[in-house]
Amino acid sequence: MKRTFFISVFFLSQWAVQAQEWEGIWYSKMEISETTIPLEMHWNVNQDGQYLMYSKEQNQKPLVMAVHEVKKGKIHWEIPRIKAQYDGEYKEECQCIKGQYQQSGFEYPLEWYSQPVAWEKSAPKKEKPQTPTPPFPYPTEVIDFLSFDTKGNSISMQGTLSIPNGEGPFPCLVMITGSGPQDRDESLMGHKPFAVIAHELAQKGWATFRYDERGVGKSTGDFDKATSADFADDAYRALLTARLHAKINPNRVGLLGHSEGGLVAPMVAAAHPKEVFCIVSLAGPGVSGQEVLVKQSAEISMAEGKKKEDAMVDADFVRGLCEVITQSKDSTEVAAGIRNRVITDSPDDHNDATIEGEDLFDQYNQQFNTNWMRFFIAHDPQINWQKVQCPTLIMSGDLDWQVNAQVNTKAIAQALSARGVQNDVVIMSNHNHLFQYTETGKVSEYAQLEESFSPESLAEIVEWLKKLPQ
Fold it and tell me: What is the pLDDT of residues 153-200, one digit of tens each?
């Protein structure tokens, strides 16, 4: 659920050795989710003892390093707060620093050069094995539809309808993506899970309509100003669009939501109960955003190797930031509360009132003080789950460290069962948040795994849909 980032706050806890031969600007890049991120390392450029990292496409402000060590041509950083480090060595053959960046189990090879580099766009990455490629054995249509922002301005949206072969009319699932700017395939880290699901369902008699989120791909609008409530409006417009199609049975159109999409789906179903036939909730939350984030912080930390007591400290820090948001009346008050938490009340490694602390405040404020995050943390999905009237499949992976399976599936099932609404809970063994088969559930594995969406999970969805009333 959490919007992830890898280059964030370079906050290091100790001061180490200066090395004049390393002074100057070094250049590198990262490629994350098919995006190239140029980086600059300013190594005591102004002879003022400051060591700075720039990721200017993400933030114009420098990220201040307080630990930097050079010994015998080797460089080392260590970043306790974000569980990150870098180890590199100068190589004569390339006149560059070669090394490995690590953060929370995520590893990335970084090469730094003392001269600006004209980075070439990488060759297109090889598709994951499950990603369907045309020609498809079923028809598809690209469909434009309209949604609206909170001021009533129209937003042009676009999606893809995948239709089973035959006359129809067919049942249909409108697919709602997870958090962060997502296209219609829910593309992330080389995977296209929504394309995989749509491909399977079209061959099993179910149409799907998946669309680019507002401000993404072929859809207009401002993604950065939107909240889950806005995405619910978009999902409802997509639902209406699917119901009007000649090949679709308007009385059998449901919602499939993954992660944040599993938060949006009950919002739509609660507001329009007669128009939603069913819900497939994939790793959807059943408890508040605050509860999701606090547990997520602890579980991801431990999964990536952090001691339990240290993970609990991180979780308590996240809880404090969430409480600031729920107790503040506006963004200005939120910012003041975050400053207090980060600079005054946070652990010693935040360097109280130093430039490093200010930089850390700026990063946390950018993360937590947004329309989306403020809504997500304060929102209780139980309000909507208690109003849902349609059959619901509640699926999760037992190694999902982002949206805990036991806590959230139980909360959803209880809300539905209390009102006699049909629901089925399926917890996939050895599956992560993306429904990939895994031994560990580590977030850092997502990109490395070849599987985009396990065949076992696809089979569970298909079998459940077959049991629904005709």
Answer: 999 999 999 999 999 999 999 999 999 889 999 998 889 999 999 999
| CA gap 157, 233 in Å, rounded | 12
**pLDDT at 7 exceeding the cut of 70:** no
pTM of the model: 0.79
| Three-state SS at 295 | helix
209: Cβ–Cβ under 8 A, 6 or more apart, which residues?
Answer: 143, 159, 160, 161, 162, 172, 173, 174, 175, 238, 241, 242
Pairing verdict, β 392-397 and 423-428: parallel
Residues 6+ apart with CB under 8 A from 142: 158, 159, 160, 161
Euclidean distance between CA atoms 411 and 341, whole angstroms: 30
Write out the DSSP string of 31-50: EETTEEEEEEEEESTTSSS-
* Residue 17 scores a pLDDT above 50: no
Can you tell me the distance from the alpha carbon of 258 to that of 285, in angstroms, rounded to the nearest whole number? 10
Q: What is the dihedral of CA 411, 414, 416, 422, to 10 degrees?
A: 120
- The tokens describing 437, both together, are 């088969």
Where does residue 56 fall: left (phi above 0), alpha (psi -120 to 50 degrees), or beta otherwise? alpha
Q: Residues 468, 391: contact at Cβ < 8 Å?
A: yes
Q: Enter the tokens of residue 403.
A: 């949206």
